[in-house]
Design brief:
The chain has 356 residues and is α+β, with helices and mostly antiparallel strands. It folds into 2 domains: 85 residues; 251 residues, Bira Bifunctional Protein, Domain 2 (BirA Bifunctional Protein, domain 2). The protein has 12 helices and 11 strands. Strands 1, 5, 6, 7, 8, 9, 10 and 11 form an 8-stranded mixed β-sheet that branches. Strands 2-4-3 form a 3-stranded antiparallel β-sheet. The structure holds phenylalanine. The site of phenylalanine has 11 residues, from strand 10 and strand 11.
């Protein structure tokens, strides 16, 4: 019996695969296996002999079965190890480069402007880019015969055959959003309206589509002094240095009084530097909202008053980031975008140290 034991346990330990194990199982403990045959001989033994041989044979059978199971597990582990070795994933390999887009300077500056005005309590409002001439002109106190209509280089949208209504226009400024906001929310109001505007014009500093941000604050006693403070706070936060402003008396049909606002700058060596020097650069139009405009928006001018302003966003981007030609903004040249664009992970740059 010891011979059998040695023979099978040795063979099982050396078995190379599952098939070999199965053969050994059949040869040892299968129906006609050697151990099984020996068990059948128990019947011929004397009771005394059987009492010794029986348990010994059972123990041997158990031992062989256990060895078969152990070897089976060991073979499976080895097979898995072998497979894993062949499937190594090298996580230290450098990643393939992925092309990343950039944020367009107009989007970046819009975000910056929005964040600065949000700090001063201004919400963002939007209006349609296609307006009828009432919103774009009449409601803003620019009647049909007014020269400002002709000066605006307006794009008119043709009506269908036989449609007698006056043509719609592509809005020439963001000021019509003033009227929409007054009608929708009533007074008081504190909003900015960034967006696209259209004028039929094209050269180094003009494109047929460009961007403005309108500002509108209406309250019981909002004054020109509030306008001046808000604009100075804005320019200082936007350019990151103290920027002096100059208010020049001007005229817009929708504000009274009206002022054009210049910011301090220098023009040395062909570049403009904001916040230094003795020169001035015109950057926006503004004034106190005309009573007729309040009335057109459904607000009583006896009770409410306020200021409005309009700034060119593209212009701000050119000044802050030193971009020379406006036309390139809208040519979708990837090299330009890569050079002047911003990382998508950049937060709007709010400058510390501005008191408010
Ligand atoms: N809408 C004017 C323009 O486009 C700017 C402006 C807005 C002026 C609000 C005064 C008040 O030139």
């Amino acid at each position: 019996m010891d011979e059998l034991r040695e023979k099978y346990l040795g063979a099982i330990a050396a078995a190379a695969d599952e098939a070999a194990l199965e053969e050994l199982r059949l040869a040892a403990v299968g129906k006609k296996g050697e151990v099984s045959l020996k068990m059948r001989e128990l019947g011929k033994m004397t009771p005394e002999e059987r009492q010794v041989a029986g348990p010994a044979l059972n123990a041997l059978k158990d031992e062989i079965n256990a060895a078969l199971a152990d070897r089976k597990v060991a073979l499976a582990d080895a097979a898995l190890d072998e497979r894993l070795k062949g499937e190594v994933l090298d996580v230290t390999l450098p990643a393939r480069p992925r092309r990343q887009g950039t944020i367009h300077p107009v989007s970046q500056v819009t975000e910056e402007v929005t964040a600065i005005f949000a700090d001063m309590g201004f919400a963002v409002a939007e209006g349609p880019q296609i307006e009828d001439d009432w919103y774009n002109f009449d409601a803003l106190n620019i009647p049909g015969h007014h020269p400002a209509r002709a000066e605006m280089d307006t794009f008119y949208m043709a009506r269908g055959e036989g449609d007698e209504r006056p043509p719609n226009v592509l809005r020439t400024h963001t000021s019509p959003v003033q009227i929409h906001s007054m009608q929708e929310q009533g007074a008081p109001i504190r909003i900015i309206c960034p967006g696209r505007v259209y004028r039929c014009d094209y050269d180094q500093t003009h494109t047929p589509m460009f961007h403005q941000v309108e500002g509108l604050a209406i309250g019981k006693d909002i004054s020109m002094a509030n306008l001046k403070w808000v604009l100075e706070e804005f320019f200082t936060a936007f350019f990151g240095i103290e920027v002096k402003t100059r208010f020049r008396a001007s005229h817009f049909p929708f504000t009274e009084p009206s002022a054009e606002v210049d910011i301090q700058c220098s023009f040395e060596g062909g570049t403009v530097k904001v916040g230094e020097g003795d020169d001035w650069l015109e950057v926006l139009g503004s004034g106190m909202v005309h009573p007729d405009v309040l009335r057109a928006g459904g607000i009583d001018p006896e009770e409410w008053q306020g200021f409005a302003f309009g700034i060119g966003i593209d212009r701000l981007a050119m000044l802050k980031y030193g971009i020379p030609d406006l036309r390139a903004f809208f040519e979708s040249d990837l090299r330009w975008l890569k050079h002047y664009g911003f990382s998508p992970l950049d937060m709007p740059s709010l400058h510390a140290g501005v008191s408010r």
